[in-house]
Amino acid sequence: MFKTDIIRTVAAALCTIVFSATCVLGAVxxxxxxxxxAAHTAIVA
Length: 45
Prior knowledge:
The chain is mainly alpha-helical. The chain contains 1 helix and no strands.
C-alpha cells in the first residue's frame, strides 16, 4: 500500500510539471514569435 501511494504521488507531480510546462510554452512561444516578427519588421521598415 505504501509503495502504491508513493507511485501515485510521483505520477501526479510529474503530470503536474509536464502540464504546467506545456501551458507555459504554449503561452510564451506565440508571444515570442510575434515579438520577433515585429522587431524584424521594425528594423526593415
